[in-house]
Design brief:
mainly alpha
Length: 130
């Protein structure tokens, strides 16, 4: 009984982190939602069903499970939130090293996002669907 309650609380924490990850580019949305689905499946069929049929959150889980890739609109939204957040953060300090760090993070994350397979793209030869 205590394990189920622990799983339930952990699943909700993971859902909250996943939702935050939609808006904060440093948090990965999909892994948090996948982990939440795992824990909900073990403690609450009702909330597992809610998560996997949610009109918005379901897309993250379905795209991962099917290996189809990430919709371009999600990549675009992530890039916008990333750069708006970085620019706003850079306004807080006038330290050049801080700006360099933010720019490095921005370029790295942007590169990663732009290299993700998009919905409808075929996998490269030798690449698996996971």
């Amino acid at each position: 009984m205590i394990i189920r309650q622990l799983f339930f609380v952990l699943a909700w924490v993971l859902v909250c982190l996943g939702v935050l990850g939609i808006f904060l580019p440093v948090l990965p949305t999909t892994p948090f939602l996948l982990a939440a689905a795992y824990f909900f499946a073990r403690c609450s069929p009702r909330f597992y069903r809610w998560l996997t049929t949610s009109s918005y959150l379901r897309a993250y889980i379905d795209n991962y499970r099917s290996g189809t890739g990430v919709p371009w609109r999600m990549i675009r939204r992530s890039l916008i939130f990333l750069w708006v957040g970085l620019v706003l953060s850079s306004l807080l300090w006038s330290n050049g090293w801080y700006w360099l760090l933010l720019a490095t993070v921005g370029v790295g994350v942007s590169t990663h996002l732009l290299m993700l397979r998009r919905v409808g793209e075929k996998p490269l030869q030798g690449e698996d669907n996971a």
